[in-house]
Amino acid sequence: MEREDQGLRLGVGIGWRPEIADTVEALPGVDWVEVVAENICPGHLPASLLRLRERGTKVIPHGVSLGIGGAERPDPDRLASLAARAEALGAPLVTEHIAFVRAGGRLTASRPLEAGHLLPVPRTWDALRVLCENVRIAQDQLPVPLALENIAALFAWPGEELTEGQFLAELVGRTGVRLLVDVANLHTNRVNRGEDPARALDELPVESIAYVHVAGGVERDGVWHDTHAHPVTEPVLEVLAELRSRISPPGVLLERDENFPEAAELAGELDLIRGVLDSPRLVGAGAPGGAPSRGTAARTATSAQARTSARTATSAQARTTGSTATSAQARTTGRTATPARTAPESTVGSPAHGGERARTGGAVAVPARPVASGGATGDPAAEAARGGLAIAQASLLEALVAGGPVPEGFDGPRIRVQARALVAKRAGIVAKVAPELPRILGDGFRPAFVAYARPRPLCGGYRRDALDFAAHALLHADLDPARRRELTHWWRDRADARPPSLATRLVRAAAALVGR
Questions:
Q1: Residue-wise over 162-180: b if at least 16 C-beta within 10 A, else e?
Q2: Residues contacting residue 476 through CB under 8 Å, at least 6 positions apart
Q3: Distance, CA of 200 to CA of 166 (rounded, Å)
Q4: Which domains does the chain have, with CATH numbers?
Q5: CB–CB of 217/224 below 8 Å?
Q6: Which of 4, 273, 472, 480 shows its CA 20 to 30 Å from the CA of 29?
Q7: How far apart (Å, rounded) are the C-alpha atoms in residues 468 and 470?
Q8: Residue 483 parent element (H or E)
Q9: Are 199 and 165 in contact (CB under 8 A)?
Q10: Residue range 217-261, pLDDT digits in tens
Q11: InterPro entries per the record (predicted)?
């Protein structure tokens, strides 16, 4: 796939959400918008997006459910859906996340599990091998270039072999995929995992950045929550400044998903972002003719040296260890580690992906191998890596969403924090899908939902989840007669094959009024 977006300059944009559609249209200086791909239908685009497109505003679909970091190969239907949205929007590229969102099923002969959230992949050579094949499959099926986003995480996998920057650099080198760098997620990982954003920026190939995300969050009890519901903080803007000191990003986008403020506050946050991008202390400042200043040139040299040194170290380490599956993962999955490799697979970028970028530092350079979508590669080591990753991800997801034990090697308290966060997120979505439930149950909604959800993974989507929760509450929750009656009517109205008649609904409404 050609890198059609290589010279694309997007400018400063904002995430389009239905709740702020009118505000986004009216905000001054918005060069482009991003829309959650799963929230739109190609044949029925919202009128606001159509008006933006008519004005020449670029609209980029941002996927959240592909799970390209999962052990399974990308689902063809999900890829087709993402492609259809890119085509309907006339988008210059499409973006997704380096994450897994489901596990279990065919590869593990266990029940399929959905996380309802973006979860980190282990930064190991085996997981990288699987991810690269998945990325190539996606690139083959999408009509426009693909860019992938680094995610925020509350926990780390045991026995990781690469840093985030090294992992991203290897991914780009092997596949030619572009990067969507979320600086808020880099800050989140600094607080939650002790990782240095500057080091990550030094190690990753910044020239492959398609655009950048900026978002707000909040710290509670030493854990940073990437909420997208709070104002952008100074530490996040500092990470943006770190990035800007290395490269002028093609685009920067402000994300906001909840607790939407007034238009003036959103405009102020966009101005803060523009201020960082235009700061005179950054790239090109203080040097005649727009050339990088001495400090910037030194930083660039240091960055390149850091990437080369990091690759040399990781390649040498992989040759020493045989780049086997990590011992912690082997303990977690109960499988034998995959056969040793003499060196981690590495590639040069093909000419179709922006010229040759040979890996340095002793890593073996081999051409990227295209993989037909859907089928096995025929490489026993690759299939072993995929199977081991499947078992590890399923074990972790059992602990996170189904009350299973925490796999060996993980930080138990952090896993439990993540599990509680997933239940809270699930409750919030059910409350949006079925707003009658929190109204009927009042203050009892959250505790009743937590009791229902902890041992029960999401199954069949959130509307099914709402129905199952209502049935569980009728059986187990301590409800007064009026709430029980109203909840029973709500459940019957939606669970029955045929909806109740108008007369039945009027009688029920009258009875509910009398009961109060």
A1: bbbbbbbbbbbbbbbbbbb
A2: 448, 451, 452
A3: 8
A4: 11-281+305-353 (3.20.20.150), 412-515 (no CATH)
A5: yes
A6: 4
A7: 5
A8: helix 481-495
A9: yes
A10: 888 878 887 888 899 999 999 999 999 999 999 999 999 999 999
A11: MbnB/TglH/ChrH, SCO6045-like_C, Xyl_isomerase-like_sf
